[in-house]
Amino acid sequence: MNTFHFGLQAVLSKAIGFFQHRGAEASVPMSWGDYLTKVVPTAVGTALDVDLSNASLVFISVTFATMCKSASPIFLLLFAFAFRLESPSTKLLGIILVISVGVLLTVAKETEFDFWGFVFVMLAAVMSGFRWSMTQILLQKDAYGLKNPITLMSYVSPLMAVMTAILSLAMDPWHEFHKNVYFDSTWHIMRSCLLMLIGGSLAFFMVLTEYILVSATSAVTVTIAGVVKEAVTIVVAVFYLHDEFTLLKGVGLLTIMLGVSLFNWYKYQKFKKGQTNEYGELMSPSTVTAKYVILDGIDFQDDDT
Question: Is residue 28 classed exposed, middle or buried when 0-12, 13-18 and 19+ CB atoms within 10 A define those classes?
């Protein structure tokens, strides 16, 4: 299913990009070095994020997996610090601590705890932090010529589809495919393909929206605010799939949401005072609306130049 979704994203992004670029100025050519060191790792990280998240659901519940995946902002901030997308501060470290405590509370006394399921979902959280940091670099740096979200998607989606297909061929029980209730008759195959087409289309627009938001703000802002989406997933899983939801998990979820709220308040205060931009640079109030820049070594690459 993931291969189908990624393949559909590749086809749609290529098609839209073709019509977008007709009559447009030539984009910045990308070197093979940048492709192999920037685009390929981003695609691999994205594919592993999605594949590991889905693999964890074989062992643990949707609610438990979603709560653990809420730790993604922690790893995202760490990668943002490492790639100099975010300046470390005591307040940010405190926010990381609050979210970490929330995750620990959701894991504590989990009756359906499974070691491999937990490992898979936490590795997915690490990959999520890595891939969104790399996505921000590709979207916000002129040198790579991928500032258009559709163009970036057309680069990474084919690689994601190929990698997921290889993993599926190596790990999925394809010898039992014909016995699956979703593909054991012509009608079931048609229905399953239609559902995958609808799901893939929704995934395309969701990812495109996320890319647009990252290009306009930052991966940190989008991912931490996206924890709200995790809360909605948990509510749906509890009421629709009847997943277990204890008081301790509720406290953990509220703690995570508190960490998210604190981060959003922290960013709002910085922009309101006009002290810094998204990456910790000093700014005057008159330049708060300017495009963000990525710290790269000792040089500053302005997106508007």
Answer: exposed
Spatial CB neighbours of 264, under 8 Å, sequence gap ≥ 6: 221, 224, 225
Counting the structural domains of the chain, the total is 1
- Cα end-to-end distance, the chain, whole Å: 41
Look at the block and give the residue holding tokens 């559909």: 8
pLDDT < 70 positions in the chain = 22-28, 107-112, 220-221, 223-228, 230-231, 241, 243, 271, 274-305
Burial track 102-111 (b if 16+ CB lie within 10 A, e otherwise) = bbebbbeebe
Tens of pLDDT, residues 91-146: 888 887 887 788 777 766 655 678 888 899 999 989 988 998 899 899 888 888 88
Would you tell me the crossing angle of helices 149-171 and 40-56 to the nearest 10 degrees? 50
Nearest in space to 148 (alpha carbons), one of 13, 2, 254, 8? 13
Q: What is the pLDDT of residues 153-179, one digit of tens each?
A: 999 999 999 999 988 888 777 777 777
Residue 80 lies in a domain: yes
Residue 216 phi, psi dihedral angles, 5° rounding: -95, -25
Report the interhelical angle of 90-107 vs 72-82 (nearest 10°).
150
Show the domain range for 130: 2-18+27-274
Token pair in block for residue 40: 């390929």
- Is 42 a domain residue? yes
User: In whole angstroms, how far apart are CA 206 and each of 216, 226, 265?
Assistant: 16, 12, 25
The C-alpha atoms of residue 61 and residue 69 are separated, in whole angstroms, by 12
